[in-house]
Write a structure and sequence with these properties.
Elements (H helix, E strand, L loop, with lengths): L1 E9 L3 H9 L4 H4 L8 E4 L7 E4 L5 E10 L3 E11 L2 E3 L3 H4 L5 E10 L2 E10 L4 H20 L1
Antiparallel strand pairs: 1-8, 2-3, 3-4, 4-5, 5-6, 5-7, 7-8
Helix pairs in contact: 1-4
Length: 146
């Protein structure tokens, strides 16, 4: 596993950025660079269930390890979700199960927030992560500063 970090300063409040990150309407806008039609479903509970899904409803099953709205959320990816079935036990899944995706929002001044993401990923996913977060965070910045 490789650890990648992404950071951007946005002229908006922590709450506004949090809302844009996790709103059902804006989430697909900034995550389109990972996969067209991206969506997520969560119960927002620590140790609960979160699903990061494609347009067909397939993707990853995860859990929240840490949650401090609107400043921090840490997801742990547990496995795959396909055709309504969770896979947390196959060899392919076990190789990366437990990989984390962390989001931190920090107030820089009254008008500016720093958004930082730290992700654990395999080397073959590095290019996808770079594209997704770099371009996605630019979309978030435009949405927030509009």
């Amino acid at each position: 596993m490789e650890t990648l970090e992404y950071e951007i300063s946005i002229k908006a409040s922590v709450q506004k950025i949090w809302d844009l990150l996790w709103n059902q309407e804006t989430y697909p806008q900034w995550t389109q660079f990972f996969m067209e039609g991206s969506q997520f479903k969560t119960d927002w509970e620590v140790n609960g269930k979160t699903y990061f899904l494609d347009a067909h409803g397939n993707g990853m099953v995860s859990t929240i390890l840490s949650l401090e709205k609107p400043r921090e959320v840490v997801f742990s990816h547990l496995g795959m979700f396909k055709d309504g079935v969770e896979d947390t036990k196959s060899k392919e899944v076990i190789e990366w199960s437990g990989a984390q995706e962390k989001y931190f929002l920090r107030t820089i001044d009254e008008n500016t927030t720093e958004l930082r993401a730290i992700v654990h990923t395999s080397k073959d996913m590095k290019e996808c992560m770079n594209k997704g977060f770099i371009q996605g965070f630019e979309v978030l910045k435009k949405l927030a500063e509009a």
